[in-house]
Structure formats: structure tokens, C-alpha cells
């Protein structure tokens, strides 16, 4: 959602969200005047809150009540107005190092222990998946021209599944048209090079390679290879719905947002009986690997595709073995949660597990 806010509007939105997270009560101008040094009058705060409401970032649950953040308001708060807590990230790392003993415990016991620490430090339901081991390996790769300027990538995995992608190849600035024979020779050279270097490696690993290292004359294929292999990796490495370690349910469900019995039952049913749906959601990878994107996914309210948690926030990240994502770490709570802390906790836990598995 693209909403341009002034500095004053950002500050008042930040204060409103922060106050609501702390109190679970609709926020009025008087509360903001008393709790925050906003440097403006109560009338100005009311006017700004009215603008934020018209923009869809706040709403009034009742006519006479104060304002409450909407999912869109939380989204701007998370994306633009906060920084994850470095102090809490260090606390999580220290707690995991102190209380978990990789050399003495079974894998399942370790992940259960990590989930318990994550739940207690975040105040949310913690979710940690068992490692994913079903990773497709590259057996053969071939680039071929099917007509002038149109090429196909064919990938054969170790279980003999075949996958393909097409692209249109545009001439470079120095070329006025494509020479089919030159393209055929280049494609064979690139195919041979990639097979000799990449055979036997996981497609998930290939999706994170730096294709810019290709020789300059083959750069025209770099972006196509990067996006194609990433897409093939997502299609060939289907989640196997490994067990999810769940901790902290009782504490979170006592929050006022979960006062309706039916809502609690649907969440518990999801956590206990439909873990495969949840697994796919928290293990989901970005469509294109982008170093500028946050490595922690935050899905707020209606951004969650699963109906039982469309009033919740799900924060997740993957842990890795080397460069290969093998499992997920996440927390689930009401949209009214301490995002600075929760994001920091998830990132720190994912880093710790990645280091341990590597």
C-alpha cells in the first residue's frame, strides 16, 4: 500500500500503534498527549488521526471510541516506522547458546527447546519446523534455441523429472539482429560450463548463486538463468509437511483478541490438524531472491491466506544448511503485538539454527 505521510502523521501513527499494542484499548488524543512528547495540541492530534482514518490506517471500533490501527496501519508501522530490537536479538542468541546443547540432545529435543525459548521471549505462539530433506539435485541442464531469438532451459533432476522454461532473447546494443549459429554455440558452451560446475547441487542452492560471474559474452543469459532456476526450485521442491514444533499456545490465547471460543478452536485445529497448510505458508520463499528484501516475512491480518489466522500476524524466516533453506522459524500472535521484538526474535532464532545446522 502506497501512502505518503508527513513526518507529523508518521509520528502520530507510530504513537497510536505503540499505545494500542501496550494497552489493547482504542487510542484517543488525550492518551497520546499524556504518554508521548508529540509537541502539538490535542486538536492537531485529532485532526491528524482523522486524516489517518480516512487513509485507511486507523479506524474507530465504536462511534465514541478512540482509534485502532488497521492492517494497513500496522503494515506501514512495520515497514517504515520501526527497527527490530538488537538488544533482544542478542538476548535470544545468548539464551539459545546457554540452554541448548547440540552435542548431547536429539534433533527433536533441540528444536522443542528452541521453540520454548522463542515462545517465552516473544510472548507469541512459536513455530519451528523439522528440517526439510527432500531437495531435488541437478542431474543435467541444457540450453537450446528452438527458433531464432527464443531459447529453452531444460533441467533434469536426480529423480529423472524434467522441467523447462522459455525466454525471448533480445539483441544487445552492439547487435542489430541475432545470429542463430552464434547463439547455438554460446548456448552449448554455457550448458557445458554449468553442467561441469553445478551437477549434483540442490536446485534450492542454485537459485541463490551469483550468475553475474558468467563471462561477459554470456551475460545476456544471466538474468534468465537466475529467475528460471529459482522458479524451477520452487516447483520441484514441494514441502513435505514435516512436523511443526508448537509452543506458547495457552498464553497467547488469553489475549483479548481471542475471547471468542470459535476463533480459538479454529486456530487450534489449524495448529494440530492442518499443519501441512501452515507448513507451506511459513516455508514459502520470495519469488525472486532479492538481497534488499527483508529476510523475515511479516504477514499481517488479511495478508494471511489461511482463514483461521486472518486476524493474526505471522512472522517467519527460514533456517539454512549452508545456502539451502531446510526449515522455518515463526511466531504467531494477534496483530496487536510487539513487532520490534517479534521480528528480532525470529531473525535471531533463524540465524542461530542456520549456524548450528551448518
Roughly what percent helix?
40-55%
What is the correct CATH architecture of the largest domain? 2-Layer Sandwich
Question: What is the tally of beta strands?
Answer: 10
Tell me the β content.
Answer: 15-25%
What does this 3D model show about the protein?
- The chain has helices spanning 7-23, 29-35, 42-54, 71-81, 86-99, 107-122, 180-198, 203-206, 222-236, 249-252, 261-273, 275-282, 339-357; strands at 58-59, 68-69, 125-129, 138-147, 150-157, 162-168, 244-247, 297-300, 312-321, 324-334.
- The chain folds into three domains: 7-81, Winged helix-like DNA-binding domain superfamily/Winged helix DNA-binding domain (Arc Repressor Mutant, subunit A, Orthogonal Bundle), CATH 1.10.10.10; 86-133 and 239-357, GAF domain (Beta-Lactamase, 2-Layer Sandwich), CATH 3.30.450; 138-236, Enolase-like, domain 1, CATH 3.30.390.
- Strands 7-3-10-9-8 form a five-stranded antiparallel sheet. Strands 4-5-6 form a three-stranded antiparallel sheet.
- Helix 2 (29-35) crosses helix 3 and helix 6 packs antiparallel against helix 13.
- It has 13 helices and ten strands.
- With 358 residues, the protein is of the alpha+beta class.
- The chain is globular and about 75 Å long.
Amino acid at each position: 500500500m502506497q501512502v505518503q505521510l508527513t513526518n507529523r502523521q508518521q509520528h502520530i501513527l507510530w504513537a497510536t500503534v505503540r499505545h494500542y499494542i501496550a494497552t489493547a484499548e482504542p487510542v484517543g488524543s488525550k492518551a497520546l498527549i499524556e504518554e508521548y512528547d508529540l509537541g502539538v495540541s490535542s486538536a492537531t492530534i485529532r485532526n491528524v488521526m482523522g486524516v489517518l482514518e480516512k487513509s485507511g490506517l486507523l479506524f474507530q471500533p465504536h462511534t465514541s471510541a478512540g482509534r485502532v490501527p488497521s492492517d494497513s496501519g500496522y503494515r506501514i508501522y512495520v515497514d517504515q516506522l520501526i527497527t527490530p530490537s538488537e538488544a533482544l536479538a542478542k538476548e535470544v542468541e545468548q539464551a539459545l547458546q546457554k540452554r541448548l546443547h547440540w552435542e548431547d540432545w536429539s534433533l527433536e529435543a533441540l528444536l522443542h527447546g528452541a521453540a520454548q525459548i522463542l515462545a517465552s521471549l516473544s510472548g507469541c505462539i512459536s513455530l519451528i519446523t523439522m528440517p526439510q530433506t527432500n531437495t531435488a539435485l541437478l542431474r543435467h541442464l541444457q540450453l537450446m534455441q528452438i527458433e531464432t531469438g527464443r531459447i529453452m532451459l531444460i533441467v533434469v533432476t536426480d529423480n529423472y523429472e524434467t522441467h523447462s522454461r522459455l525466454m525471448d532473447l533480445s539483441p544487445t546494443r552492439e547487435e542489430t539482429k541475432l545470429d542463430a549459429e552464434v547463439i547455438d554455440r554460446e548456448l552449448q558452451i554455457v550448458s557445458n560450463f554449468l553442467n561441469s560446475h553445478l551437477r549434483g547441487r540442490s536446485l534450492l542452492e542454485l537459485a541463490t548463486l551469483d550468475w553475474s560471474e558468467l563471462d561477459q559474452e554470456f551475460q545476456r543469459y544471466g538474468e534468465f538463468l537466475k529467475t528460471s532456476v529459482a522458479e524451477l526450485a520452487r516447483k520441484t521442491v514441494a514441502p513435505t509437511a514435516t512436523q511443526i514444533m508448537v509452543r506458547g499456545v495457552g498464553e497467547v490465547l488469553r489475549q483479548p483478541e481471542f475471547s471468542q471460543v470459535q476463533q480459538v478452536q479454529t486456530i487450534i485445529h489449524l495448529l494440530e490438524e492442518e499443519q501441512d497448510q501452515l507448513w507451506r505458508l511459513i516455508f514459502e520463499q520470495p519469488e525472486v531472491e532479492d538481497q534488499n528484501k527483508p529476510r523475515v516475512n511479516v504477514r499481517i491480518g488479511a495478508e494471511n491466506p489461511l482463514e483461521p489466522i486472518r486476524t493474526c500476524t505471522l512472522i517467519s524466516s527460514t533456517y539454512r544448511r549452508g545456502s539451502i533453506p531446510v526449515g522455518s522459524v515463526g511466531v504467531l500472535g494477534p496483530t496487536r503485538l510487539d513487532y520490534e521484538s517479534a521480528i528480532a526474535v525470529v531473525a535471531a532464532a533463524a540465524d542461530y539454527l542456520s549456524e548450528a545446522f551448518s
